[in-house]
Amino acid sequence: MNYRHAYHAGNFADVLKHSVLFALIQALQAKETPFALIDTHAGSGCYALDSEEAGKTGEYRNGIARLLFPDLQPGQATNHPLPPLLRHWLDAILALPGNEHGLKLYPGSPLQAARAMRSTDSAHLCELHPDEAALLRELFHHDHRVHVHNRNGYEALKALLPPQEKRGLVLIDPPYEAQEAEYRLIEAALKTALQRWPTGIYAIWYPIKLRSQVQPFLRWLQRCGARRVLRAELLVHPDDSPLRLNGSGMVVLNAPWNLDQLLREPLRAMARLTSQEHAAEWRLDWLVREDEAASGATK
Ligand code: SAM
């Protein structure tokens, strides 16, 4: 348990993850009935970008900062308007108290979700590290919609699913400290979760170093029995080196039918703005379409 998200908050992987989360919450809010969010690996909820940790890696500079201040990047100055979803997501980050005079704080998934949620929606946040969980609890102590659990998120799914609301989203965003083992944990947790709540939306973030490391997991997801499985990826380096994070992806099980349309232009814009020495690449495709789902359930 060495991972601390404070070193990575707002990096290019967070940009992908959190804009997909924002799109999913918007899609869920198209209906008036409340929804539940279950965040299995919540982190501490909010990150100061002038902290020692963020300063050590400077990762946010190649992530959120590039979207907010493209003119600061050589060769990136642009007058392309941003797609509305991305604009609204960035506006929500800048509207966070503490960011009145510029980008000082980067909200993690729990805080981004809580700020987008309505009074009737609810969130269950699981965080195993006691210090991170304590920060999370402090952040939401006044918010009756939000429940913080200092426990293993994979195990908590058994107790939390299906949620009372019967509609909503599970976000699975683990640290992948032991990569192969983490994939197996996700698969086991999803297998149980899908049995308990087959209609829930499940969004799973994954790192991309070597492409071949991810393929078995993606194949498993293709056969897990979910209807409509959408994959969104953003790669800022070629996916051929195991030594660094080259990009990342989000797979969404039981995805809203129009999620690909919501994400296409935002992904194109993210790739344009996060390009480093190579042009960033993006990918958005259905791993399972509705009519294919029936034939492939995992034994
Ligand atoms: N989802 C957060 C966000 O987007 O802002 C970031 C989460 S960070 C990538 C992963 C977090 O999972 C870390 O804070 C780590 O302490 C926590 N963690 C690791 N293993 C866990 C487990 N089995 N259950 C719950 N939390 C865990």
TrEMBL record:
SUPFAM superfamilies registered for this protein in UniProt: S-adenosyl-L-methionine-dependent methyltransferases
Similarity section: Belongs to the RlmJ family.
UniProt keyword rRNA processing, yes or no: yes
EC number assigned by the record: 2.1.1.266
Keywords linked to the UniProt accession: Methyltransferase, RNA-binding, rRNA processing, S-adenosyl-L-methionine, Transferase
Enzyme class: transferase
Pfam family, one: RsmJ
UniProt-listed InterPro entries: RlmJ, SAM-dependent_MTases_sf
Annotated site residues (Interaction with substrate rRNA) in this chain: Y3
Reaction(s) catalysed (UniProt annotation): adenosine(2030) in 23S rRNA + S-adenosyl-L-methionine = N(6)-methyladenosine(2030) in 23S rRNA + S-adenosyl-L-homocysteine + H(+)
Sites where the protein binds S-adenosyl-L-methionine: H18, H41, S109, E127, N152, G153, D173
Function according to Swiss-Prot or TrEMBL: Specifically methylates the adenine in position 2030 of 23S rRNA.
Keyword Methyltransferase listed: yes
Active site, UniProt feature: D173
Protein name per UniProt: Ribosomal RNA large subunit methyltransferase J
Assembly: Monomer.
